[in-house]
Structure prediction request, 190 residues.
Amino acid sequence: MSIRSKLLFLIAGLMLIPLYYVPFWTISMTAPQYPEGIGMYISINDIQGHNRHDLQNINILNHYIGMKEIHKEEIPELRIIPWIVAAMILLAVIAALSGSYKMMIAWLVLFLLLSAAGLVDYWLWGYDYGHNLNPEAPIKVPGMSYQPPLIGSKQLLNIRASSWPTWGSSFLALSFGCAALAAYIHPKQK
Prediction:
């Protein structure tokens, strides 16, 4: 493996480090009672409101329609994902230092599989929160579910919910791009 390929692959692994410091996803909502909007940021190890009381306000809204409250302590993925990211960083460094083309390809495939699994898990999380409603909720609309969109915007009664990647997802894309470029140029430089 050329020095350029090794360096690009090392950069790909190191591009995952910012995920420990910036959110990778955001969900925001606007409604007549919240015209300025409320929302939350999802990081690999945390969920925070866009503003100080947003998560509390989201939980209040959720209560009225029967959704579970969102507490980061109750989401096991927030304890697991930091370890997965650390393993991906370590594997990228090992692949770069060893110069193994097979390890590079395996890392890229694993990256894609983990990304797909993450999106499926996020969809399932939204499904659970939006469909498994408390039958004792103050507001009941027969046949209504409140699953936020996987990506994009969706009207849920009088609430406009939006779900989008944010800064951390840019680092994920850059990481994959650097790794793919390293794998692409590697055979050409033999």
